[in-house]
Amino acid sequence: MNLSDREILELNELCGAVVDGALTEAQRARLAGWLADSEEARRFYVRALGQSASLHTYASEMCAEAPDISVPPQRLARAMRYGVWWGTVLPAAAALVIGLWFSYRPATAQAAPASEGVARLTGAKNSRWSAVALQPGDRIEKNQKLELAAGLAEITFDSGARVVLEGPAALDVNSAWDGTLRQGTLKASVPPEAIGFRISNSAVDVVDLGTEFTMIADGRGAAEVLVLKGEVEAAPRGSDDETILLRENEARRFAASGVSGVSDQEKKFAQFTQPLALDRFAPAISYVHWSFDDASGELLRAEAGGRPLVSSDAHLSSSDAALLAASHVPGRRARALHFGGQLFARANVPGLSGASPRTVAFWVKVPEGAATDAWMVSWGTAMKKLGSRPVQISWNRRPGEGSFGALRTDFGGGYAIGSHDLRDGRWHHVAVYFSAGDETVPMQVRQYVDGRLESSTITHTPGKSGTAPLTGGAAQMDVVWLGCRLTGKQPERFRGELDELFIADRGLEPNEIVSLMNDNRFPASAVATAP
Amino acid sequence: MTPRPLHDETESRKRLMALMTRHQRQIFAYIYTLVPDRHDAEDLLQETSLVVCEKFHEFTPGTDFVAWACQIAWWRIRYSRQKFARSKVVFDDEVLEAVARTAGEMAPELDERHEALAGCLKKLPARDRELVLTRYEPGSGVAEAARRSGRSMDAAYKALNRLRKLLHDCVTNQLAHEPPGGVA
């Protein structure tokens, strides 16, 4: 029996009612009859219900992703109750720790959102601010309201999206993925890593699909959107008009009265496609780089600025010829370092244990379905704020705390966890910015995977003392450890491969991280020296 | 009986964890088709996972893990029938068994459809995608999706049914045009 189109529509409606818990008794009887008699109906039902199961999964994953951090706290709490369990505790069941999950709930607290930096002023030209004056290089906090009286100001969001404001203009920085233009003109440039970045105002929501666009908000409820490159989705607010896909060289005006064309469109396109001359702020970068291209032996050479940096050469932990031979393998670029759960390596990096911000970037390949040995890069600290405990980058093995297998950074008093499972046997580019802050600047961790911001929210674990460091005191200071855990009663290692490790002495801008990922070097403007 | 060496236990646990990590979503989808309530299905998945852990030594490596785990899930569902008796969605045993049989056979197809669904979701206009994902967010539902999208409940139900059908057709179409073994 083949189902007619009409029957399929009815079946779809019945399946929807099942999923939404809205099935009437009459509908239940009708559906039950269908499912008993028709194989085709059963197959449709299984596909429809399977699709809803998948949508639960995708929606839960979206909840865990960075762009959704605008959701209210109570929804986040629910996401933790359901979403995290969903994607993460389930593997724990397989690890025979279900009982532990229910009995072990560490005291945790999300970092106060109000003190979370989400963007930076990266350029300016003749800028004059109405309220709080910003200087190039200043961090911009979540929910900060910017009021530019005159001139140009470039804001780089941590997601990688760049916005140039033309004064007079007022912009609310809602998150690393979201801004509200209350008045004035902005030009947004969104690289592929920041697709999904959103600019809104009272007339329209614009979701960028990897492009350049301009928005002009008149401050009286209307806004014009001009797409300079690529395409955007523009959803009118306050009217019943459908979402519009705007392509290159297309423009629309959005107002309460509806959507219309833009006056002087050609003139405006000509104006906004002109390059903007900005004074950009590009602080120097000091870094150390290990390529792991060494073909053999226990020595892993370091370099900085194209020159050997012998004092930071890394050493593998064994001189066993067979182990060493197995540790040098083809990598993401040339050769990589293979860790089989036994070897680890260490290198001196002057100043690493101090309070200055750091960015650690590298390529990593974790075997598909890996279950143990998660510890990639660690270093000791001497900071009271961190209880003198190390900072450790791994993949998450605690499903009760976040997505299982996702990038995780632990430090004394808390952790940050990303969203995507790294354990797929493929190379991923990882960059972790870590700053312990001080009395005035809060602690910050930003994690990027494959150039895309994954998480910037810290979970604090107040009062959790943890276990004593495995190797103590001075031995850990100013040393980076590769492939081993520095805490815990049992030594734990890493299984997988690492390649092209960089340690930089400041927070890298999103474009600098992408440059490392794509070109294995910093942008030409960066000054490259040893720390 | 000779106790198995500790090394074997560890290896076995690793294998189990890898299998559960990889296939938990498929097992959940199977359970959800039979018990279409997220929380009940999650509880059942948890119970199933425990039994899978306990009985893993009975699993024959190289055979179909998903089919084996779904069989355990099926018995858990039958065992828990009383729990769901008050639910609005109660099919009799005969219907439930028929659906379970079909769902078991279609597990690989559902997996392909899951992968294709991601691409189809991206193709939806942002506003529609937001409605769908809000509906399925943890702790959310149709009422929340209606509230946030400014729709009446009735309009939200209709819109969701339309979008689910649209996604269903998109996935079917995408799989029909994909070369065998191809990646979306």
Word description of this protein:
The complex is a heterodimer of chains A (531) and B (184). Chain A has eight helices and 35 strands. By secondary structure, chain A is of the alpha+beta class. In chain A, strands 2, 3, 4, 5, 6, 7, 8, 9, 10, 11, 12, 13, 14 and 15 form a 14-stranded mixed sheet that branches. In chain A, strands 16, 18, 19, 21, 22, 24, 29, 30, 31, 34 and 35 form an eleven-stranded mixed sheet that branches. Chain A has a ten-stranded antiparallel sheet with strand order 1-32-28-27-26-25-33-23-20-17, with no helix packed on it. In chain A, helix 1 packs across helix 3, helix 2 crosses helix 3 and helix 3 crosses helix 4. In chain A, 49% of the residues are buried. The C terminus of chain A is likely disordered. Chain B has 184 residues and is mostly helical. Chain B folds into two domains: 100 residues, Rna Polymerase Sigma Factor, Chain: A; 69 residues, Arc Repressor Mutant, subunit A. The chains are: A alpha+beta (531), B mainly alpha (184). Chains A and B meet through helix 1, helix 2, helix 3 and helix 4 of A and helix 1, helix 2, helix 5, helix 6 and helix 7 of B.
Question: What descriptive keywords fit this protein?
Answer:
heterodimer; A: 531 residues; alpha+beta; Jelly Rolls; 14-stranded mixed beta sheet; eleven-stranded mixed beta sheet; 8 helices; 37% strand; B: mainly alpha; Rna Polymerase Sigma Factor, Chain: A; Arc Repressor Mutant, subunit A; 9 helices
